[in-house]
Amino acid sequence: MKYYEVDFKIDCREEQRANVADVVAALAGEAGFESFEASQQGLCGYVQQDSFDPSLLDELLATLPFDDGVSVSYKVLPADEADWNAAWEQEGFDPVWVGSRLVIHDGRHLPHPAADRGDTPVQIEIDAKLAFGTGNHQTTRLMCEALMDANIDGKTLLDCGTGTGILAIVALKFGARKAVGYDIDDWSAINAMHNGVLNHVDERLTVYQGDAALLDDFDETFDIVAANINRNILLADMPRMASRLNADGGTLLLSGFYRADAPLLVSRASELGLALVGQKEDEEWTLLRFQRTN
Fold first, then answer.
1. Last residue of some domain: 66, 87, 108?
2. What's the domain count of the chain?
3. Which of 107, 203, 226, 287 is the most buried (most CB within 10 A)?
């Protein structure tokens, strides 16, 4: 499998650099990039040559939520044949705390007992085959918090764009009766079920490979539909997501976008009979909570 190495040059104030690089990585991830590493000029990303879409990458980078003092350009080169992502998998990630109730780890870097922040937290092990869906990103943490606060005991969840399966697993660990996920990437579907086994929730977790068109063939509806995806995909797929909500008070949780994008999503939800009942932000990232009104 051949990859491109894409060198992102980030021009900004030094105190902004880490935040801008974080946003660039999130956007590039939506364009199919599979791993990143810091570079002298900003960030280096890797993407399969067959799936690289520069037009999509340009469209996503155009949504950067920073002022005129920030600019991002990139150069594309064939990547070395080395298994660069294997190094990330071997290194893993430090434990990620979501408040005091949840800690996410990779099974090798365990939370230190002294780090306990009160009540014994729920621990989730994520064996991430790619550097996404570990809880490090603001939107993942926002979604985890929303699920923990949703009184999810005994309820059902649909996880759209499941990735590592982190959101479905959080829901199941906090009492959901059943979770169904889907992802366009076959590696995600496999990885999500693998993580379900690691966390002993696989009997209540089902994962499909495919996009939102899968929902057209679903007969069941769900108490909660969750989607941590970029704005454009959310706008396109929201009608299908809304169709899978329970008629009696079904909840739609959306994240993966910036504060400035929220009005577009609120307007689209309103057209579908969904009312905004909650909003939470972490830096420039936003989560919206909707409830069916008809």
1. 87
2. 2
3. 226
